[in-house]
Amino acid sequence: MRVALDEQIFAVQYHGGISRLFYQLAKSFISDPSHGVELSPLNAPIVNEYLLADQEASTYLNVSQAQSPYSALARYFRNTRTLSDADVVHNTFYLPRGLRSGRDSGRVVTVYDMIPELLPRTRRRLDFLTLKRQYVNRADHIICISESTRRDLLRVYPEVRTPISVAYPGVSSAFHTGATTDFPLPTPYILHVGNRSGYKDAQTLFEAFATIAHRFPDHTLVLVGGGPLSSREMGLIRDCGIHGRVQQLTLSDTDVPAAYARAEVTVFPSRYEGFGLPAVEAMACGSPLILADTSSLPEIGGETALYFPPGDSEGLARILGTLLNDSSERQERGAMGIERARQFTWSGYANATAQAYEQALLAR
């Protein structure tokens, strides 16, 4: 079966969850013919670092380095690339140009979350250009990355009758308990990974840590990724009385697994996630995990994680303090997480996606 991905997300994202998902999907199809999927070349300039750094995948898909997302998108919108030879077209995002391609092919679209629709204040500039509803209505098959996302999709678009399947993304083998780094990490520490603002709700974590910091004077709150602390965050940290106890780090992809593996606890306080890849990464590295009890997170963490009501800093502080005081509980939760993370593989995601392609062809 010949499948054409479009280059939308690779033209937009240098790195990020959606582009990582499609990079890993493409990598699985390229390296494992048993999935029965042959990818068409993209023949496009892109900015995505995951794909550009992989010589085999970038050569196979015939991509090149674009000067910027603007030039890559300009090329994408001008592109007259025909996808008539593809059995299935899998759109990677929801920009208008993609609706014009592959009219005679089966069409598959992935829905990652319904954050712009359910949390409109989070909308970024690109969200105002997207046509998600039209993609959903035009699709022969829809893939959602969690059951929570599937439910939210049907809540927002109740008219949808297109077949929907759930395919869980995976976690790279780089995430494991023995991951190492030469980067000087503080010891001991509580870990948060990823963006912190808005619905990601790092404020709740700051307030929870401030509540228990005096009981754990040697602990640091480590924030990996998400960019340097903003002036608002620095003000909040000072007001909470934890100045000097919070450290923001920008780590390479090769160092992040070790950050999980060495953490005493990983906390993911986000109020909404379509999937929640940091939760799976933490489990794979054996880090005890605390999650907000919302959206897809209980679906991903299962009985492995501990949960607090979203936005409840006092509830988070109670759980965090109890877990930090109990090394045997941390060890048990870490071992449970390693087992649960084995359920989330990129090969499994590719297999579920290939089955969705088959369903799209049957629907034509």
Verbal overview:
This protein is of the alpha/beta class and 364 residues long. The protein has two domains: 188 residues, Rossmann fold, CATH 3.40.50; 153 residues, Rossmann fold, CATH 3.40.50.2000. It has 16 helices and 14 strands. The protein has a six-stranded parallel beta sheet with strand order 2-1-5-6-7-8, with helices on both faces. The protein has a six-stranded parallel beta sheet with strand order 11-10-9-12-13-14, with helices on both faces. Helix 2 packs across helix 16, helix 9 packs across helix 14 and helix 12 packs across helix 15. The longest helix is centred in the C-terminal third of the chain and has 18 residues. The mean pLDDT is 94.
Rg calculated over all Cα atoms: 21 Å
CATH arch. level architecture of the largest domain: 3-Layer(aba) Sandwich
CATH topology of the largest domain: Rossmann fold
Largest sheet report: 6 strands, parallel
Structural class by SSE content:
alpha/beta
Short description:
The chain has 364 residues and is α/β, with parallel strands linked by helices. It contains 16 helices and 14 strands.
Supply database-style keywords.
single chain, 364 residues, alpha/beta, Rossmann fold, 2 domains, 6-stranded parallel beta sheet, 40% helix, 15% strand, elongated
